[in-house]
Specification:
There is one protein chain. By secondary structure, this protein is of the alpha+beta class. It folds into two domains: 76 residues, RimP-like superfamily, N-terminal (GMP Synthetase, Chain A, domain 3, 2-Layer Sandwich), CATH 3.30.300; 58 residues, SH3 type barrels (Roll). 24% of the residues lie in helices and 40% in strands. The chain is built from three helices and eight strands, in the order αββαβαβββββ. The chain has a five-stranded antiparallel β-sheet with strand order 7-6-5-4-8. β4 and β5 form a beta hairpin. Keywords: Cytoplasm, Ribosome biogenesis. Required for maturation of 30S ribosomal subunits. Belongs to the RimP family.
Length: 155
């Protein structure tokens, strides 16, 4: 069950993040921890990597806003961080970084939804290449719905 203060905390976090060219991707309250923890995950508006300086700047600014709002009756810990790597491959950088990794590719072919498993070989403007049990498969990029990292058990 989501904590009742998450929408209010998110609102404060988004207000603070907007001034810093950051996007709030997730907010969680971990009430089971002592002291209670407010966890905020951020991304950079320009798509770059989140730095420790980005986290520090938002943490300071958001900490002031949360203290002023007096949302918590007891002490709390504020944790600001990057959400980490996504399993979805989207950018050119993702496809370069994870070349040779097992992936699951969702595509629309011949009017139906297919899921292909294989090792990512690369992509260009027209196609994505997968090694599927030693055979190279070319999938037109226009047919690709999603590419996700997997454990490789189905490859």
């Amino acid at each position: 069950m989501a904590h009742a203060l998450i929408p209010t905390i998110r609102s404060h976090a988004e207000a603070a993040a907007g001034h810093l060219a950051l996007i709030v991707s997730d907010v969680a309250v971990q009430a089971h921890r002592q002291p209670l923890a407010v966890v905020v995950a951020i991304r950079r508006l320009d798509g770059g990597d989140v730095s420790i300086v980005d986290c520090e700047r938002l943490s300071h600014r958001l900490g002031v806003l949360l203290d002023e709002a007096e949302l918590f009756a007891t002490a709390f810990v504020l944790e600001v961080s990057s959400p980490g790597l996504s399993e979805d491959l989207v950018s050119d950088r993702d496809f370069l970084s994870f070349r040779g990794f097992p992936v699951e590719l969702h595509c629309r072919r011949r009017g139906r939804h297919d899921v292909l498993h294989g090792t990512l070989m690369g992509r260009d403007e027209q196609v994505i290449w997968l090694n599927r049990k030693g055979r190279i498969t070319r999938i037109p990029r226009g047919d690709v719905l999603q590419v996700r990292l997997t454990t490789g058990e189905s490859c």
